[in-house]
Amino acid sequence: MRISAYYPNYFYDAGIAGAAYHIVRGMQSPGNKTQLMGLSSTSAFNDAFYKNAIPRWAEPLVYKILPYQNILTIAEAAYCRTLKQNDIAYLWPGVSLATYQRLKDRGCTIIYEGVNTHEAHSKAILDEAYTQLNLPFTHDVSAEKVIVETAKLELADYVYSCSPIMTESMLNNGIPQHKILQTSYGLSGQSIIDGVYTKAPVQDKQLTFIFVGSISVRKGVHLLLDYWVKAKLNARLQLVGRIEEAIKPLVEQYVGQYNIEHIPYTNDLASVYKNADVFVLPSLEEGSPLVTYMAFGAGIPLLVSPMGGGGVVTDGVEGIVINPYDADAWVEGLQKLAIDAQLRINLAVKSKVKAPFYLWDALGKRRLQSLTEAMNQR
What we know:
Elements: E1 2-11, H1 15-26, E2 33-41, E3 50-52, H2 59-65, H3 68-80, E4 88-91, H4 97-106, E5 109-114, H5 119-132, H6 143-155, E6 158-161, H7 164-172, E7 180-182, E8 207-212, H8 221-231, E9 235-240, H9 248-252, E10 260-263, H10 269-274, E11 278-281, H11 290-298, E12 302-304, H12 306-309, E13 319-321, H13 327-339, H14 341-354, H15 360-377
Parallel strand pairs: 1-2, 1-4, 2-3, 4-5, 5-6, 6-7, 8-9, 8-11, 9-10, 11-12, 12-13
C-alpha cells in the first residue's frame, strides 16, 4: 500500500501540522510506503518520509515574488506528480477541490482528514453564537465553504473522523457510515509531564485555571468569562492564545480584573500546563482539540463542553463535561473544582493514566489498521 499525505501549510512541531507529521510517521510500517508533503517547514523536518513542496533553498525567493495562491497551485502540482494510479491520497485541510477531482480521475483512493465537524454543522452553530452576541458573521465558515467541503466528501473514499461528534455531523449531512473511519488525535511523549497531581488545596495556594487556544466565539470564551465572574472564585484564570478581533472589546473588559490574565503567546506551553490546576474549554464547535490531550499529559482535571472534550473526556472520570450554554452547571462546576481538592486529584489521576493511549505513534498504527481493514472489506 502506498499512502501519500499532503497538508498545504508551513510545518513546525505544533498544531495541525504537527499532528499530520506525527500521525503519518506513526503509520510507517514494513508493508507500506507512507509519505508526507508540506508546503515548507522548519529545518527540523528532515525525515526521509517528509518532503517540502517548495524546496527550502527556494523559499525566500518564491515567497518574495509569487502571490500565495500561486504558491499553493505550484505546490499542489508538485504533490500530484508524486502520485500514481491506485495510490492512496491522504488529504489534509486546504487542498483544492480541483486536486480532489484530478486525483479521483487518476484512480487514486482519497482519504479526507476531518479536523472539525462538517462545515454545515459548524456554520449553524457559529451563526447562532454570533447572532446572540450581535456580531457580524466574521467567522470563516461561509456558504461556499459548505458547498466545497460537501463536494470533497463526495469524492473521498474514506473520512478520518477525529471524534464521535464529528462523525454525527458527517452522518447528518449525508456521508455514508462505510466511509467514516473513527479515530482521534493525540500527543507527544514530551507532553506527558513527569509526576502526578499533588497541587495544594485552595486555602494554601491560589488555584490556576487555564484556557488554551484561540480566544474566540468558537471556543466559547465569552461564556467562560461570564461564568467565571459569577462563580466568584479565590483563583485565577489564565487565557492563553490570540484574541479574535470580533470579541476583543468584550474580552478586554475582563482581563486585568476578576483575577483574569491574558498570555498572548508562549513557546513554553508545558510550563503553563505544569503550573495549572484545572483545564477549561467551553467550545461551541471543535473536532477533537489538541489542547485537551495536552491536559491529559499534564495530569490535570478538565472542565469542558462536549466539543471541548473532543470525544475523549469522560464525564466524572477525567473531568466534568457540561453543555456550554448551561450557565448554572458551569458556575457550579467551577466552584466544585475550586473547593474540592480530592475531586481534583481523583480526576487528575485518571487524566494522567489516559494520556499514553493517545501517543502519536500508537495512534498512527491504529489509523493504519482501521484503513487496512476498511480497504480489505471493500
